[in-house]
Amino acid sequence: MFDFNKFDLIKPNEDEELYNYQCSLIEKRSEKNLTNFVLELALIQTISPIEDYYVAISILQKYYEQNDDIRVGILGAHLSSVWECYKDNKFLPKLKETLTKLNDNQQKSIIYYLLAHDMIRKDKRINRKIYKDLLTKSINLSEKFVYNYYHLAKVSSKRNAKKLMQKAFSQIETISNEKNCEKITLEDLVSYDFYLNERILGIKSSNFENLIEFYSDLKSIKTCYLFKMFR
Known about the structure:
Elements: H1 16-28, H2 34-44, H3 53-64, H4 70-83, H5 92-98, H6 105-122, H7 128-141, H8 147-153, H9 158-170, E1 174-175, H10 178-182, H11 186-189, H12 192-201, E2 204-205, H13 209-219, H14 223-229
Parallel strand pairs: 1-2
Helix pairs in contact: 1-2, 2-3, 3-4, 4-6, 6-7, 7-8, 8-9, 9-13
């Protein structure tokens, strides 16, 4: 059994609701659903007001040393690129090794995107050719994806960027409004799929302002008009 007690988990005096939910996750854990438990335990550490991304990364990193579940690698790699960009991403080498073994093109697409994402988070003065190549590979393999098109558009010519952004917008499944956001539950917030769709793929989100503003600059369209188009 994975030893979760070694980590500095949520305490009752920090947030009672999150602590109680964490306790329920721990009580329901079993060897059969251990990976799901680890993913949820890591994600609950990231929820406001706790937002301890470093504990979340530590949990995933320790578990990934003894388990090859690609979801753990994907979540850990993304969190590490965002919150520990000053360090080597310890999830990516193992993910990169799996590329030749994977049959799932969407998972391959995600790994190529994460490799590119880690590059740009670490240093804005990237090797543009390698960066664009990784994003292009991600796009060629992807089924549903938004952010790979967006990030490639940002380093492309204006003409190509417009086409890429149009494709990106066509991939969006849900744009949440204030009313929808109120319906999001703790169960959603600790779900790997919820995080994947919102933070990595970008196909379901409440935060598309950056994409809309970038596209409006390309098209010289008023941002407020684009907001109406995609809501």
